[in-house]
Amino acid sequence: MKVIPADGLETLGGRRLGPDESFDFACHNGLACFNHCCRNLNLYLYPYDVLRLARRLGIGSARFIDAHVDVVLRPGHHFPDVLLRMAENAGHPCPYVSEAGCGVYADRPFTCRSFPLEKGLLAGPGGRSREAVYWLRPPAFCLGPGQVRSTTARRWFEADPDTRAYDRWTGRWARIQQRFAQDPWAGEGSEGRRAKMAFMAAYNLEGLRDFVFESSFLKRFKVDPVRLARIRRDDEALLDLGLDWIGLFLWGISGPGLRPRR
């Protein structure tokens, strides 16, 4: 998911859908293309994707990043992309897919969860308004669109509580990513201390928890006591703080739950 400028809609390709426009799609193991879409992918992982996959695998997010992803900084960008590393065997499949299907289905990343749709947030005047836009863009080999199972774009992303949670978290990260269109590193570059701290806050929950409780963080920032208690035991609450802290650290955006101490 990303924030899309109004003049960028024509570059999206595929079939654009209104939120309540119907489309037909179903995926099941009776289709000849089953699992073909899970191979040789540039599968972007957002912070909530990493939280869920690391927890599913029973490892920390730092270990997950080291062992299972490629961190790529594209030319002209100021924050790296995190991509799931494909397996090395023939066809370079997703490491979690088998002939029976997805082995981490309940915790599959947002991109897999939204397939065959893609979703963006349309930037309004001043870049502040955010209207959801949807488009249908399955690969040419996909037979799912020929299956008669009608739904709408809006229902696709509201299908269950987990999908709604992924949608909220990914939309929030898209808004942060939009700010990285401008270089925020104050001359340090994308390998500097500030960039590494921001990456930790988004993708390394163990590092973030240590930063909050083992450094001078709580002497420098005031955190709501109820929120602080949740952070000690809840990864989602910790990620929530991390994303808030990125906004405060890089752009001075504070809120009632996190602000500098005076």
Describe the structure.
- The longest helix is centred in the middle third of the chain and has 19 residues, at 161-179.
- It contains ten helices and twelve strands.
- It folds into two domains: 3-179, no CATH class; 193-260, no CATH class.
- α6 (193-203) packs antiparallel against α10.
- Strands 1-8-9-2 form a four-stranded mixed β-sheet.
- The protein is of the alpha+beta class and 262 residues long.
Key traits:
10 helices; 12 strands; 2 domains; four-stranded mixed β-sheet; globular; 262 residues; two-stranded antiparallel ribbon; alpha+beta
Structure described in brief:
The protein has 262 residues and is of the alpha+beta class. It has ten helices and twelve strands.
Percent range for helical residues?
Answer: 25-40%
Overall residue-averaged pLDDT value: 93
Which strand order spans the largest sheet, edge to edge or round the barrel?
1-8-9-2
Termini separation comes to: 37 Å
Beta content:
15-25%
Given helix and strand content, the structural type is alpha+beta
